[in-house]
Each structure stands twice: as C-alpha cells, then as structure tokens.
Amino acid sequence: MHLPKLASIGKSASRLTGGKLRPPLKTLGPGSVSSLLKIALDVAYVLLALITGVLLLLWIASIFIPIDNLNVTVSDGADGRQMPLTRPLLLFGVGAMTAYFGGFLMILRGLRKIFRTLTLGDPFQPDNVRRLRQIGLILAIVTGGVWMAQGLVAARLAPGVMEPQGISDLLTPVFSILVVFVLAEVFREGARLRRESELTI
C-alpha cells in the first residue's frame, strides 16, 4: 500500500484553491479578526456614548421640568402599581440608567484600547493588565449597583410588585468578573515573559 506523497497533496490542495494556498484566518495584526472586532467596538462605543449623553442631559433636565400630576407604573411582568412621579424618584431612575450605561461605556473604552494592541500584534503590554483590572472592577460596581437598586425598588418603591434579585442571579455576573481578573493575570504573566525574553536577547 502506497501513501500519497506530501508534495502531491500540496499540489492537489493548490488546485482546489485556484493555484494559491490560502493562509488561515489571522487573529492578531492588521486585517485580522481582532481588527474587525475593533471596528465593531468603535461603533458600539459611539452609540453608547450618544445614549449616555442623552440620558445625562435628561437627568439634568429632570431637575427643572415640572412633573405635577404625573404618574408612573412600576411593574414586574403582568402585575403593576401606579404611583405618583416625584422628583427624587425621577432623578433616581434616570440617574441609575445614566450610571449603568456610563459604566459600560467605560468598559468599552478599555476594550477598544486592548483590541488596538491586538490589532498591532502586541497584546502583552503592562497597560492591558491595568485595563483588564479596571474592566473587572467597573463590571463589579455595575453588577453590585444593579443588584442594590433593584432591591431598593422592590423594598421601598414597589413592595409586592417587584422581586429583589437573589444570590443566584449574581452567579453569571460574578463568574464573568472572575474571568476578567484571571485574564488580567494571564496578560501580566505574558508581559513578564516578554520582558524577560527582551532582556535575554
């Protein structure tokens, strides 16, 4: 039994691809998957910045606009409760949304800088370790803020209508936060190995 030679296999593959061997899809550097994701992050960052800016203007306007005889319905699914819209309630609601989107805006800002280094083909930079730790910290603050805000709304503003988040609702966000911090340590180790190799050379 004769096995086909590697050269003949290469020629067959070359014929199948039109005479040119196509390289595998790059993950780092210009024209790679990282550069495409960087473009997507840029678009998402601009959109999120616009949303955050509009919410911030709305929060400022909430200080001055009249809200007499206005009601708001707080609901969780089918049930709901109508209650008068007070200025503290309006400021709290709009401020919480502004802080929520602002937190994710800061996360996207850090991710854009990280993917910029991936596009340049130089991911293991000390700055990326700091950026990943900041992303993990912001994600933890946003998660804790949402958990406390929903508990406050359920306990004070709409008791019996909305249910506060339980500990089980925090499992997925906490897992994501831990993954980010683990990635930060991976990048820190990569930066250390790169620095040692540069010193060796």
From TrEMBL:
Species, as recorded: Brevundimonas bullata
Q: Which UniProt keywords apply?
A: Membrane, Transmembrane, Transmembrane helix
**Entry keyword Isomerase:** no
Q: What is this protein called?
A: DUF2975 domain-containing protein
Q: Does the keyword Transmembrane apply?
A: yes
TM segments?
A: 43-65, 85-108, 135-158, 170-187
UniProt superkingdom: Bacteria
Query: Which InterPro entries does this chain map to?
Result: DUF2975
Taxonomic classification:
Bacteria, Pseudomonadati, Pseudomonadota, Alphaproteobacteria, Caulobacterales
